[in-house]
Amino acid sequence: MTPEQPLLPFKSLDDIRMRKEYLRQELRKDNQSMKTQWNGLFHKEESNLPSRRFANIMSTGVSVFDGLLLAWKLYNRLGGGKNSKKKSKSSGNLLTAFLTRKRK
Asked: Is 0.90 topped by the overall pTM?
């Protein structure tokens, strides 16, 4: 029995053993292929080039600054900052505070 033949009723124990060994080899190949693809997706290569490290630091810094700027803008628009001492009608609900805010 060759591995490429379609599944037919087995005629002997040797046929079963051959099929079992073939399937085991195929599973090992598939397992190795999946490991390679998984590692390629989730484990990035470490780059020791100074320019790459500098670019990564700059990218991280810009992302943090952008997040802080967004948080500051949301804080000021939704009732924080200067007008936080005044009581407004919509101070209880964040959505209504956003929708009824005074535009500058």
From this structure: no
